[in-house]
Amino acid sequence: MTREFSRSTDTCLILGQGAHRVLCLNGWFGHAGDWGPWTDSLDTKAFTYAFMDYRGYGRRRGSGGDYSMAEIAADALAAADELGWEDFSLIGHSMGGMAVQQVLAEAPERVRALVGVCPVPASGVPFDEAGWGLFSSAAQDAGARRAIIDLTTGNRLTGTWLDAMVQSSLAHSDREAFAAYLEAWARTSLAERIQGLDLPVLVIAGEHDPALGMDTCRATWLQHYPQATLQCMDNAGHYPMNETPVALASAIEAFLREH
């Protein structure tokens, strides 16, 4: 991340000093300190963004834990309490899309708006045998991590970028945590718990994301949240914060300003 954070807590990195507070939960390959060049385009006068590290990720490597969605949500709410945030909006990328919904299920009265970026739905993600074999091998196999990132961005980005993403993931996540979080986001179901919750929801799907693209989001997120807005991010796969950062920041903040 090129932009400097305003401050930090034990679990969060903070950017901005605006009145609208936003808690951001990253994807399986990410961590709090790296949301790509997207952060360079955020309005830090209108918004305050908090980026939380999961247990076993980023500055919390070696922390241990059960690495579940429930644990992430409990940590997120504790982080918001530590920051003095009574209410806040949520942004979740990929695995973080499942995690923000767990936060919503635990404390719906505190959530102003929900944004899912190429997000895992509340029902989890089904895998065929080959797909599960690839994803489950990624904890130990750097080549599998690279193949997954390449696949989910449409096999269209440079090897240099793919290699950098893999190295960042390896350097900022414990293998034990990485393996366990796959089970958590793929095989957890929160669908019953979030049914009927009425709040502003924006879902952003990458044009070139074959796994969590427009069709998948329409069949899951828009069924769970009929009031949601679904937007396609052109020229992006599963990582629009890296691929189309300015467009992503513009879309998210335009939505959040309305709420």
TrEMBL record:
The keyword GTP-binding does not apply. Residues 22-240 form the AB hydrolase-1 domain. The keyword Ribonucleoprotein does not apply. InterPro entries: AB_hydrolase_1, AB_hydrolase_fold, AB_hydrolase_sf. GO terms for molecular function: hydrolase activity. It comes from the Bacteria. SUPFAM superfamilies: alpha/beta-Hydrolases (SSF53474). It holds the Pfam family Abhydrolase_1. Keywords: Hydrolase. This is Alpha/beta hydrolase. It comes from Melaminivora suipulveris.
